[in-house]
Amino acid sequence: MRITYKVVLIWLDAFSDRYIHPKNCPFIYRLSKGDSFAKIRPLFAYEGIKACFDTGLPISVHKIWGGHIFNSSSHGNWTKSNLFKKVLRLIDKISPTDDVNKILRYFWFKMNKVQYGTPHLIPACLIDLFPRIEKKYVYKDLYQMLMEHDIRYVWKEPKLMVEEPFLFKRIPELLKRYDVVFAKLNSLDRLGHKYGPLSNVVKQRVKYLDGLLYWLAKKLTKRDVLIIMSEHGMAPVKHHIDLLSFLKKRGFHFGHHYVGFIGATYAAFWFKEEKYKNLIKNALKTLDVGKLLTRQDKVSLGIDRISKECGDETFVIKEHYVIFPEFYHWRSPPKGMHGYAFSKYDMPIFLIQSNTSSIKLIKDKIDFINIMPTFLQLLDLPLLPNLKGKPLLV
Q: CATH assignment of 6-63+134-235+346-378?
């Protein structure tokens, strides 16, 4: 069945299925009890999640995973000059908190027209080693399809939390000019990292956003469809481990024996020599807070074909643990985290609602690659022959 609507997508970054409770979010809770609600199977990916959404293809096909790639030659430098790095070091030194550090970095990168991406604290001396990835899809993505068929769309992503309610108020007006409105809200992600997903701060934000969604749903017309989704959840952090200090105490030094991209839930390693690789692997195997990914692990996670980007070896941390310090947090560990390799704590959500008809989903557990073809189905557009995902509407 193919149906044509105007579509509003509200992308709630880090909205966990565990937030769904009649007291915290009565509107989403009510909708979740119908057959237009599904949970999305978590992906061990970062930029790769959005790429799956954009293309309807799995990571093994579009081969986009993280936000940065490893550039061993340090050529093709994406920074402007040594002055850029000197100022970056100064910003890192004078910043009182990680949040302030990331804000100052954002403006400095923007002033120099350097791609920043997800707010990070990659040391200035390693900036050239880990340039930001540039997305290049081999196949058509959702936005190309919209443009080819003269479907007007707009993507809105407020930088500040205080901007989010104003965006909600604008959506009915935006629908008069556009056929599809994408609105990505990041406040739950930021608050979840800072205060933890079980905090009252997060609960209050969930309740507030739920109220805005209820208001918006009442404003939509008979031609409009509302989609609410998230890309990942947020698990509470209970423990952290200083992985770099662990290796240093065993005689392994960053830059001499190995290079690593150190994230909160994983560390990707590249080694100077094979003997160091074996010795460091043996040291990491003694840790009971995580594991080195095997070949079979990479296959099951869908990242076996991009192994060099993930590292010569990749160590992943258990849920509820984080690596700290790392390239996103230096001064204090996060209280909430996502992006675990084997996530079991929670799941992201997908919900679709119309004021005039009952839109039903084929299944109650879906994959990110199903969402792009579902958009095509809603807008009565042809499905691309290369799509791996299938549309979800009955």
A: 3.40.720.10
